[in-house]
């Protein structure tokens, strides 16, 4: 359940930070085409990573109680677990959309600002 809540936000954070790093290195070395390819690859990989958290949450949705958890489980825990699973799915959708739109934004705008000399 924790993977469903945290994997997509972590993937979005990684996408944001790594995109800045890739663009900074690409612009400093004049590697513009490679920078766009690297951003696109990063976007695809981290989108799939975030979507895997949704799969993990859906796979675990009607989760039976395991023997190890039996002693600590109460009937009051189930609504909280269902809420956290739903929250994880909703967060995953929002962060996947953020990753994809961030990737498209990086691919559509000029990556390296040209210095203006007067």
Structure description:
- The chain is an all-alpha fold.
- 75% of the residues lie in helices and 0% in strands.
- The protein has three helices and no strands.
- The chain has helices at residues 2-29, 32-59, 77-108.
- Helix 1 (2-29) packs antiparallel against helix 2, helix 1 packs parallel to helix 3 and helix 2 packs antiparallel against helix 3 (77-108).
- The radius of gyration is 20 Å and the shape is elongated.
Q: Could you give the count of β-strands?
A: 0
| Alpha plus pi helix count | 3
Overall shape: elongated
Structural class: mainly alpha
Q: What is the percentage of strand-forming residues?
A: under 5%
Radius of gyration: 20 Å
Summarize the helices and strands and which ones pair or pack.
Layout: H1 2-29, H2 32-59, H3 77-108
Helix pairs in contact: 1-2, 1-3, 2-3
Which features would summarize this protein structure in a list?
mainly alpha; 3 helices; elongated; 75% helix; 118 residues; 0% strand
In short:
With 118 residues, the chain is mainly α. The protein contains three helices and no strands.
